């Protein structure tokens, strides 16, 4: 099976999978009269025909924003989204930005709405949504620097809201045991205790590659055998290659830093078994890497017309799906095994070739 793209007619901001491996896509044209619907759709992927067929769909209000972030509950048929209310409700301080939906074979139904953003600015939105691995907590991060930790299913506050003033929350993630949340803004990485709400560690102004300033973009805790690792993406400008940093989650020291691609990374996801980590870049390419070594295992160029906004693996990591504002998703089959890295063999061959060339040159010189 080869890669394929499928156009769904709306800008895609959210990609996920249900527990039975049907594809969740959500997005839209936002509030106003753009003519582009806001909706959540669950599709069945036909890998042989390279098509998607709609199973269930929920069209959302045109007066409200499009779904901008998604997290699928780890055990229940439940999805949590970041969706801003209508502008007049936001300006009245009534933004119910955190939305929880339940899905079945017949329909997608709203279950809970919760406001975690107090800003009356319609441009402020819930950029990140994340369930903990046990599904008992739900964290949200806003572009106004607000991080909220909620109990599931009540959505009552688990802790008081944390406000990082002057910062936009770029990403956040729970540790495997749920005891910590990693949060990144452009200039900061914070580790927060989910028990006390205290900031346990703060890393500011990432400087790599000969002291050039970089910015954090995403963060993900590893899974399975790599649950003690935190991965962060650190971008420079378009002239600087992005880095992926691996941190030891026991003491928050950096254990490895490697460049991945040549353009800023815009999206990141980890396979359910924790063995693979994928990155989408502003050059529209996608790279699948080993979570252990960050070795690039496969590269898929030109997946979209615009930057990748969201990605997700299915349950057995046999598929990786990406979305973009180009209104298309890209479906990538993931092989069970990857070709072994031949860099060492190439190095040995090169050295032998150089040695042979030098030996021949010495021999010819001696014959003169």
Q: In a nutshell, what does this entry contain?
A:
This is Quinon protein alcohol dehydrogenase-like superfamily. The chain is 8% helix and 46% strand.
Dominant shape: globular
- The CATH class label of the largest domain is Mainly Beta
Q: Output the radius of gyration.
A: 23 Å
- Determine the mean pLDDT: 92
**Corresponding CATH superfamily of the largest domain:** YVTN repeat-like/Quinoprotein amine dehydrogenase
Keywords: Endoplasmic reticulum, ER-Golgi transport, Membrane, Protein transport, Repeat, Transmembrane, Transmembrane helix, Transport, WD repeat
Protein name: Quinon protein alcohol dehydrogenase-like superfamily
Transmembrane segments: 344-364
InterPro entries: Quinoprotein_ADH-like_sf (IPR011047), Sec12-like (IPR045260), WD40/YVTN_repeat-like_dom_sf (IPR015943), WD40_rpt (IPR001680)
Describe this structure in words.
Keywords: Endoplasmic reticulum, ER-Golgi transport, Membrane, Protein transport, Repeat, Transmembrane, Transmembrane helix, Transport, WD repeat. It holds the Pfam family WD40. One of its GO terms (molecular function) is guanyl-nucleotide exchange factor activity. It is a single-pass membrane protein. The chain crosses the membrane at residues 344-364. This protein has 2 helices and 30 strands. 8% of the residues lie in helices and 46% in strands. Mean pLDDT is 92; it is low at 342-348. Strand 16 (188-193) and strand 17 form a beta hairpin. It has 368 residues and is mainly beta. It has helices at residues 87-91, 343-367; strands at residues 4-7, 12-17, 23-27, 38-46, 51-60, 69-72, 78-82, 98-103, 108-114, 126-131, 137-142, 146-151, 162-163, 171-174, 180-184, 188-193, 199-204, 207-208, 212-213, 215-221, 229-235, 243-248, 253-259, 265-270, 276-281, 286-290, 296-300, 308-313, 319-324, 328-333. It folds into 2 domains: 4-341, Methylamine Dehydrogenase, Chain H (7 Propeller), CATH 2.130.10.10; 342-368. A 4-stranded antiparallel beta sheet has the order 1-30-29-28, with no helix packed on it. It has a 4-stranded antiparallel beta sheet with strand order 2-3-4-5, with no helix packed on it.
